[in-house]
Amino acid sequence: MKIIKYTANSMPDAINQIRKELGPDAVILNSREIKQGGLFGMFKKRQIEVLAALDNQPATTEKRKQERTSSIEQNKTKNTPPRAIKNTYEDQSTVLREISHLKHMIVNHTMQSETQFPLDYDLVYNYLLEQEVNSELAKDIITSVLEQHGTNQVTTDALIEHVKTEINRRLHVVESRENHIPQKKIIQFVGPTGVGKTTTLAKVAANTMIEGKKKIAFITTDTYRIAAIDQLKTYAKILDVPIKVAYSASEYKEALHHFSHYDHIFVDTAGRNFREEKYLSQLRELIEMDKAHAETYLVLSLTAKQKDIIDIHHQFNKLPVQNIIFTKLDETETFGSLLNISIAAEKGITYITNGQDVPSDIITPTNEYITDLIVSRYEKND
């Protein structure tokens, strides 16, 4: 399907252009009046903008009928399932897919685009923005695809595959953890309030016990919320692991010493206001108490606003964070933050959680998995 945007002084002029370039089989998808030119915003000239399309391989009704008849006759003699009929239905499905795609394009392009991308590329660019991919990053991705493949005719499926390849390439630049079992003795979980740190800690700990056959213990420094202590104690009871509550830095140090003979010590920290420098200073003191034997997970929520996620990462980036976890995959259909933070933090996403069940609702994502998440809504919309 070839789609071109025309600008002319009048509708007859536009139609003449369309007939000359696309031929008599072209169809007009959309038209609107625009103003261009002028001096200092004045004396702009009225023109007509027309969106036209041409199916490069039109299939007539008679041709489809002949294909179905021929297929039926052949399969009568072979007594086999009508495979050609299935192919015809698949062709019809492709046509319907293209029609749906065109409708989506019309809806999204009634306003003049701010980019200079061809129409199909511009549609994917705007989709990435809807997924809250950083605007500069989205523009860079589409520009790169356009430079590689040019303005040659490209199907919707081919274009999205090119975009997926480009996103995946960028993710592969970032180091991803092949082994998701924690490497250090002390595993600390940090992050803002309400992201699900305690539940996430329990999931990672449970999987470490089951898959890694490790002996583990819990420490919580989240003494600001009684509910958080009770929640971790409940998980400790279910998993049959010991737990210590540390109300001060000295008690935290004592708890680390008490559990020193365990393979891993999982630490739940307080999720207070991440904008408070005092809170971050206290957190840094705990994290760096045994820095050589510790690794830190920053827990973020996919349901948070993109600006807040960037601010949270910026604040917690002052701490020695080695790993990133995203929670609440099941509560959103917007996944651009996975790409944004991976690129900004220069770190792979270690885990993604997708529910409340412990230990099952946790995923160790590949770069391909993250790429598919980001483009999944586009493919469904088509």
Indicate the CATH architecture of the domain at 186-365: 3-Layer(aba) Sandwich
Low-confidence stretches: 75-86
CATH topology heading of the domain at 186-365: Rossmann fold
CATH domain class of the domain at 186-365: Alpha Beta
The count of helical stretches stands at 13
Q: SSE string, helix = H, strand = E? A: EHEEHHHHHEHEHEHEHEHEHEEH
**Strand adjacency order, main sheet:** 6-5-7-4-8-9-10-11
Strand tally? 11
Name the beta content range: 15-25%
First-to-last CA distance: 14 Å
Q: Find the CATH superfamily of the domain at 186-365.
A: P-loop containing nucleotide triphosphate hydrolases
Relative helix content: 40-55%
Mean pLDDT: 80
Largest sheet: 8 strands, mixed
Describe the fold and architecture.
The protein is of the alpha/beta class. It has a domain at 186-365: P-loop containing nucleotide triphosphate hydrolases (Rossmann fold, 3-Layer(aba) Sandwich). The chain is built from 13 helices and eleven strands. Strands 6-5-7-4-8-9-10-11 form an eight-stranded mixed β-sheet, with helices on both faces. It has a three-stranded antiparallel β-sheet with strand order 1-3-2, with helices on one face. Strand 5 (216-220), helix 8 and strand 6 (243-245) form a beta-alpha-beta unit. Helix 2 (61-78) packs antiparallel against helix 3 (83-108), helix 4 runs antiparallel to helix 5 (135-149) and helix 5 packs across helix 6 (156-173). The chain is elongated, with a radius of gyration of 28 Å.
